[in-house]
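Just wondering, does anyone understand these tokens?
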Amino acid sequence: MVRGVMSNGSPLDELCRGVVDLHVKAELEQRLASGKRLRIKAGFDPTRPDLHIGHTVLMQKMRQFQDLGHEVVFLVGDFTAMVGDPTGKSDSRPRLTREEVRAAAETYTTQAFKVLDSQKTVVRYNSEWLDALKPSEMVELCAKYTVARMLERDDFSKRFEDKRPIHVHEFLYPLLQAYDSVALENDVELGGTDQLFNLLVGRDLMPRYGKQAQIVMTTPILEGTDARFEGGKVVGAKMSKSANNYVGINEPPLDMLQKLMLVDDLVIWRFMELLSAKPLEEIKALKADVEAGRANVIAVKEAFAVEMVTRFHDAQAAADALARRKEIAAGGAPDDTPEHAVPSEGGTVGLAKALAQVGLAASNSEATRAIKQGAVLLDGKKLGEPDAFLKLAAGERHLVRVGSKNRKFAWLKIT
């Protein structure tokens, strides 16, 4: 059953939560009010085998449409991934083979079903229709758009001005993505804000093939775990595996929880607004409580991290991860803590020298400074300036922790 727009407008409000671009809201309201079961499409080019929580911002919007009774198409861009999306690129992307794309695509749907309802999701591959396009049909597709419109894209225009190469196949990418909408005859296409141009090409192209123009909705791009709050806003590169600032949805529960706890205290609200199931009003109230000193931001971050681990694993995994994190914070070592044999000189070795030897500090002087500043724990005990020249004896085995936020652990076995 499809839920239409209620008298208080709640389904429309729910769908518009967090949306950045909406072309056109009046059209969406009209189609929702009609009671028609809409077809919602979102495309994913499988260029890498794993999804991270940044991808799920868009998937949550897909799930909202599903929960309202609409059809959601999870489109695997196995053909377009071989072309390569030029969005945001100052140079041409390396091209992938069909085998590389297929290998990455195998993991996509199973991971996506951690957010989407597998029973209500239609999975399609755009090679179904793009492989079948005849040369004459490809020419016809190209004839429906102009080079001038393509050069309106910032990335293309900048490359053109800088005399950087723009290959012809890159112009094809937005057209091929748009043709997906023609083939599927979807009512709505979802994408990240960086996909707005491509999505609008689809909206322009559909009427030229006699189809009703799609509605375009974009969701924010989530910044990475290393983002910071500066000048009143969140700044930083988008979450990505290549930047090593991601939280993978298939990561072990403890790793996922630890990464989320290390997100900057002021940035965590951005993560919560985009990913938490809590109402925005509740998140705003929590933020006000923290700012007023009525609540602890660490407790808020823990609750959010537990919510995420529960979503992608289960409640027991989240509880176990939180308990293990607290054990580690108290001085206990992670299960995968490395052990290093450290040779002594005359039966002892300086702690600072040992830290430098095993890579926990760049040099003896840096290790000494860390000890003096209280950034080193030895067997759970916080050290200070009097311990700067502490000696460890042969035959001893110690657990050391260096750093507080980005902490590193190691077992030192003195030989």
About this structure: The first helix runs from residue 10 to 16.
